[in-house]
Amino acid sequence: MTDCDLCGKGIPAVIPVRTYPPLLRFAYPEGVWKGLCETCLDSAQKTYLEVNRNHTSCRRGKCSLCGSKTGVFSVELQIPDFSKGIVRKDVDVCYRCLKLVDEAYVRFKKAQIDEEGRIHGHEHVHPHH
Ligand SMILES: [Zn+2]
Ligand SMILES: [Zn+2]
């Protein structure tokens, strides 16, 4: 089990998102991998699309993913809560991370489609003998 780096939910596998924390720039010039659950990935990608579509202006804040103090945007998380069901919470994510989330999202969706295609394809290639 791993925990999602945004909502903290424990899931079997998180979706890797590369971030570039400014404090670790020298130790990890290649970036640091964070892991997001599918729900958070979806929400962050939605924010990314909205920001691009509406030219939303950012606020000053601290990015929840890379820790940069920079311009950030709100991403609405849906955090599962045992007593209250789903709790909504806003976190701040910088544009750079949102863009990396979008890349991770595209990669993840493509892998899903490939996987479906593979399973599906397999059903049809039954050898006739
Ligand atoms: Zn999450
Ligand atoms: Zn960031």
From TrEMBL:
InterPro entries per record: F420H2-DH_FpoO (IPR018288)
The organism's place on the tree of life at top rank: Archaea
Pfam family, one: FpoO
Name of this protein: F420H2 dehydrogenase subunit FpoO
